Amino acid sequence: MRHAVLSKYRQLLKLIHRLPHNQFGSALQDARERMRAGRLEQNPERQLNGLKELAARIGYLRIVTPRMPGDVAAEAGTFVLNREGELVESQGGSGASNRAAKGVLSMDEAMRLNRDHFKRFYGADKPAPGKTFF
Q: Which domain of life does this protein belong to (predicted)?
């Protein structure tokens, strides 16, 4: 968790440097104070909330701050909670769409998830093979 927080903090600092001069000082001071206040937090739920807040600030600053010439483009990503309850950044193309093919999920588990998703999306059980809705 520490590595993820420090990585996101570095991203936040880079984005703060893009802010106009009149906003830079206060934003930098606020970020430092929040990170120092959260570093001694022992409660896992509060740690997760702090990481979520940090991710939200990064997302907001990515939108409102202009990119400077020569800046490396930010990677597209989505923050998701994995099954262990940890907040992780999922990169495009490596998400849940190909977990069964990679062997992360068994085929039975993937089929069960498919049935559950079908019921959640469409409000009915998945029809048996060969049957149609018509």
A: Eukaryota
- Bridge-based pairing of strands 87-91 and 77-81 is antiparallel
User: What tens digit of pLDDT does each residue of 61-114 get?
Assistant: 888 888 777 665 555 556 666 667 676 766 555 444 545 555 677 888 888 888
Q: Using N-to-C axis directions, what is the helix angle for 2-16 and 44-64, rounded to 10°?
A: 30
Ramachandran sector of residue 66 (left: φ over 0; alpha: ψ -120 to 50; beta: rest): beta
- The domains of the chain are located at 2-90, 95-129
| 87, 79 contact by CB (below 8 A) | yes
* The three-state (H, E, C) secondary structure of 18-39, written as one string: CCCHHHHHHHHHHHHHHHHHHC
